[in-house]
Amino acid sequence: MLNRYFSIYLGAHLVPAVIGFIAITAYTRLLNPAEYGVYVVGMSIAGIVGAVFFVWIRLSVSRYQASSADVDFRGTAMVAYGLTLAAMGCVAPAAILLLSPDVNVYLLVGGVFTALAVGAFDIAQEFARATLRPYRYAAIGITRAVLGLALGWLAIELGWGGLGLLCAVGLSFLIGAVLNAIDGKAPRISRYRRDQLMQFARYGLPLSLGGLSMALYSTSDRLVVAYLLGPDAAGKFGVAADLPRQFMVMLASSVAAATFPIVFRTFSGEGLAATRERLNENIELLLAVILPVAVWLALAADQVAGTLVGQDFRASVTLLLPIVALARVLGVINQFYLQISFQLAERPMLPVIQSIITLVLSITLMFPLVAAFDLLGAAYATLVTEAAGVVITIVLTRKAFVLPFEPRRLAGVLLASAVMGVAIYATRSAVGGTGLISLMTVSAAGGVAYAAAAWLLNVVRIRTSMSSFLRLRMAH
Length: 476
Hints:
The protein has 476 residues and is mainly α.
């Protein structure tokens, strides 16, 4: 069942990831690094605001709607969102007065608008995922991505620059949230229940503190770069950081969308042994989809940067991409596998502790390394912090739900990725240069090598599943 759902969620995240790649290619040709830096800072503001005010609702929906298929939490979620908007209205004037001397007011407003839209969209999508409606989840997600690209391109063509791009992306999320609300097949929304809201608050509100520290950590590298080196450098670093994010986080999200609701329901109804098996499937599938992307980005950095980004960004992206790709692998493992331990155990303060420690470590490393080594220092600070974050989370899981780990099951993924790396390196040396033909040749060689190795090693039971499918088709 995991593989069936994963194939749908893979499309739901892969198509937006490809569109995201196209968007980066377009934006880095239409905007200069300084204007792209404005967009990067605005999205960072949106990430921080969203983590503080809306993540608690999304995580509560993920935890309770997935494990309670017969209970409707939508009315409670709508009330929680409304109360959150009221709270934001109370603190907004003070925040603008406090931050406006250092940050453009229009950039602040654009970031907050985008946060509101992304929050509504993510909560609505979480209901589709938690209630196991993958086709609707995919349709809305792909539509939103297409709208984001189209509206972003239009805003740039109209001369609205990085700020216009920020607001256009926010508008695409708002339209996606509205489309999600128009659902003729969904049952009537149940009325708000006070006990559900208290359940959300007890579980989710402590996560707001963790969400704040995690959002600050996720954006601190770009904000520190912008503060020390200016928006031009922030734009260049943002592109290098966004390239691995577009594919790895999107693919990891598809794994989580397929596996997390099933893990929660298995934990509630089938016991510990069955839950551990689902978790073993989760980590194997997660590594099987993100490791080849990391190998591709790291070893084909010249071809990726030389083809997908504008001329002003290529040198910095080529330099930084191998480092940030490895850092993103560690971050994905932490976020999309290790931290499910805290949700299963309903220990919301543990991710708060982890994220605060990680944030402090990131800032402690970022300032001196960026000051000493510019963008390369930011990349290394990110890598060290992500590695430390994995270790911290593993230690904390001992106080929550102890996760399974089967090295033999994961060895096939590592070996297939190594085969892919050898193929990319050999092809890159033979082809040489950059450009679309070089990128396609290197990518095809690596992809074929990985697919063949994965089939031979039966990674994620791909050979077994395909053989069973073919036998079933032949029998009919």
